[in-house]
Amino acid sequence: MNKKFAQVIIDNKSSSTDKPYTYLIDSDLVELVEEGMRVLVPFGLGNRVVKGIVIKIEENYFGSHKLKKIIDVIDDKPLISKDLIDLSIWMSEKYLSPYIDAFKAVLPPGDFKEVKTNILLEEVHDDIYNTLDTLEKSVVTIIHNNKGKIELGELKEQMNNRLTNKIIRQLESKGILTTSMEIQTSIEPKYEKYVYLKNRFNSREELNQKIGKRSYKQLEIAEFLFDKGEIPLKELMMEVNSSISTIKSMEKKGLIQIVNREIFRSPIKEDISPYKKHELTLEQRNCFDTIMDHINRNQSSKFLIHGVTGSGKTEIYLQLVEEMINKGKESIVLVPEISLTPQTVQRFVGRFGDRVAVLHSKLSYGERFDQWRKIREGKVKIAVGARSAVFAPFSNLGLIVIDEEHESTYKSSMNPKYDTLQVAEKRCDQFGSTLVIASATPSVESYYRSIKGEYKLLNLKKRIMNRELPFVKIIDMREELNSGNKSIFSKELYEAIEENLKDNKQTILFLNRRGHSTFVSCRQCGYVVKCNKCSISMTYHLKENRLKCHYCGLAISPPNICPVCKSKYIKYFGIGTEKVEEFTKRLFPNAVVKRMDLDTTSKKGSYESILNNMKEEKIDILIGTQMVAKGLDFKNVTLVGIIAADTSLNLPDFRSPERTFQLITQVAGRAGRGDFEGKVIVQTYNPEHYSIQLAQEYNYLAFYNKEVLIRKEFNYPPFTNIISIIIYGEDVKRVIIKSKEFYKILINNLKQINLIDFVDNIIGPFPAPLERIKNNYRYQIIIKCKNEYLDKLKTAIEWVFIYNRYKVDVTGIKFNIDINPNSIL
Ligand SMILES: Nc1ncnc2c1ncn2[C@@H]1O[C@H](COP(=O)(O)OP(=O)(O)OP(=O)(O)O)[C@@H](O)[C@H]1O
Ligand SMILES: [Zn+2]
Ligand SMILES: [Zn+2]
């Protein structure tokens, strides 16, 4: 038999070993090794045996090195499919990510080295058993003696034969074995006690004959178990109203058996009520039909749905998913983590039941692995989840939906620093599947692409039932101040809340800052309390009476006297949600007021409980950050107050006008979703700013047109790419010296390869706007570059910063390279 060559990725932190290594696959393993399987290989000078994953198999090897051999193959089936391998390689190149990080995004959750394969023995009839060869028979015997189940590695050890994988595959094809994956986690599996009748009775009569002489209760239990089969102990005790002692005594007499069974870890609560299918409105139908028309003609396409808040986008996704199921295809529906509320989950699970897998960051590794496995094994047809669900390992993917596509969380800020939209496009290209992205406020980039024809634009201009979009009133807070109102609430907002309370309607108040006061400062000398690890002013939290850093979490007691001038005039400035809550409670003592932000929702279940109380109208006024801004659908909310629309406007980032427009539109969209008209009050110190003005008119198109002109004029995305390189470390002097050194090397390199004139702009190195985070000083280089030259530029950056070909000493220095980052702070 011939030999082959495998490219193997090894899990290794060091960037110098982060590349595929070529190994020889000897003839005896050639048939067994496949792309996506894990193998054991000798690695490094000492030939330490390590686990790696095969990403490519080649017929030829043209190198001159003497190759090491693969020692053994671990899996009997690939852990990941070819399309996901290709996707990872593509990501590592596109986002300059280490291979191993790119692969970890698509590998099963947890440590891939810990994945185990269990082999289960099915029933084997004698006539079939007799047809097996000796090796096959011994495999069957070993598993049989091991109570019908064995872990693959253990079986191999007992077989002492390298061809075990092949034998297993043969037996599997004969229906004698099945395999399933499992991962070792620190979380103990959950068990529950189950009860069943020990003896088999053919009929109730037989049962009565055998144990009829026993007590009435015992007979009742036995009959119950005869009807139901194996059931949870708890359920039995409840149903027949029996004590544990009766059941225990039956066990002692050998009538029944109590066993521990593992409970399948599931993040989906069982008591989800069905979500009925809506008859599509005319607008919804047009949109749905256009998409289905493309799908039915087998045209893989991309769509952007621009649909106002409350226009019923979710119903369209649900019906598209249903069509996919009918076609035997799978769907991925992505929503921002923050909108992955019980409400969203309920809509999907309520419609499709156990055909839905839910993936989000609050799941434990065990839970996540279970969801991953269900997808991989084809047990579910839909994956609903946040960003990383784009990697759901389906094998027949028909549709990807990205809801609220403008959300910044779709861009990852950790390796691989991928943009979910681009990854989704890539996956859809691989499968020939359909991509639908949607928003009430599409990002400038996406809308621009729809105008260029890369996405087909579909509009939903009306709310469901022709409900009106809420009326938006802008309040100039400078005038409020001039007229003597120093409160957080303008007169108009105060009166509107009061009226809303009288009418028994609910109110949402939004402020994009948590905590109580946003900074603490000395009135005498101007000293501001800042985090001593980050260059960020600290936020006061009243309940704990602590100053907290929102970047690194450091908490300290607030000072009584100024540490600089020793004065006592320490003052608390700025407002956060906690202060809004305090004021609201004071002004409306009879209202039920609740706050929803990171601080009040960290306990498990607290988030759900607030949303439930809101739904059941037990809360009059809900105060919150981003969390109350998106996707929530409460019919009784008729008033939305935006306490300060300017917080996002003043950040030194080219996206801040866009973010402000989106936020106001989205928050406003929470009002008037039921039978009653909604009203929105926006308080601001910049009432004439176009973001605020155009959000008031719901004029997305005018906003887009204005914004896109600015982007063009000042050369920002989508007209260019922005690459941010942050050089950071604890020693500020070294950071400065190294930044300058690397900057010079980069410039020289770009000159050498004749790229310097094609790169639009290189600025830096200068202190990053967030100059210090967690004790690290950060210097930044920003490069702007058109699409045509981006690949060349990336190669240069890789050469200089990642491979460090110039052998610069980088002790204590790290780099963070991000292509089109979310924010350039
Ligand atoms: N065809 C329909 N007939 C009646 N009600 C519908 C229909 N489609 C959707 N709805 C209901 O309309 C409400 C708004 O729909 P949905 O929440 O999907 O809007 P959306 O466009 O996603 O809004 P947002 O962008 O604000 O999240 C929901 O309560 C939904 O159940
Ligand atoms: Zn002072
Ligand atoms: Zn800090």
From TrEMBL:
Zn(2+) 2 binds at residues 531, 534, 549, 552. Its EC number is 5.6.2.4. Binds 2 zinc ions per subunit. Keywords: ATP-binding, DNA replication, DNA-binding, Helicase, Hydrolase, Isomerase, Metal-binding, Nucleotide-binding, Primosome, Zinc. Residues 557-722 form the Helicase C-terminal domain. Zn(2+) 1 binds at residues 522, 525, 562, 565. Residues 294-460 form the Helicase ATP-binding domain. GO terms for biological process: DNA recombination; DNA replication initiation; DNA replication, synthesis of primer; double-strand break repair. Pfam families: DEAD (PF00270), Helicase_C (PF00271), PriA_3primeBD (PF17764), PriA_C (PF18074), Zn_ribbon_PriA (PF18319). The keyword Ligase does not apply. Its cofactor is Zn(2+). One of its GO terms (molecular function) is ATP binding. It catalyses: ATP + H2O = ADP + phosphate + H(+); Couples ATP hydrolysis with the unwinding of duplex DNA by translocating in the 3'-5' direction. InterPro entries: DEAD/DEAH_box_helicase_dom, Helicase_ATP-bd, Helicase_C-like, P-loop_NTPase, PriA, PriA_3primeBD, PriA_3primeBD_sf, PriA_C. Transmembrane segments: none annotated. One of its GO terms (cellular component) is primosome complex. It comes from the Bacteria. Component of the replication restart primosome. Belongs to the helicase family. PriA subfamily. HAMAP family: PriA (MF_00983). Initiates the restart of stalled replication forks, which reloads the replicative helicase on sites other than the origin of replication. Recognizes and binds to abandoned replication forks and remodels them to uncover a helicase loading site. Promotes assembly of the primosome at these replication forks. This is Replication restart protein PriA. The lineage of its organism: Bacteria, Bacillati, Bacillota, Tissierellia, Tissierellales. The gene is priA.
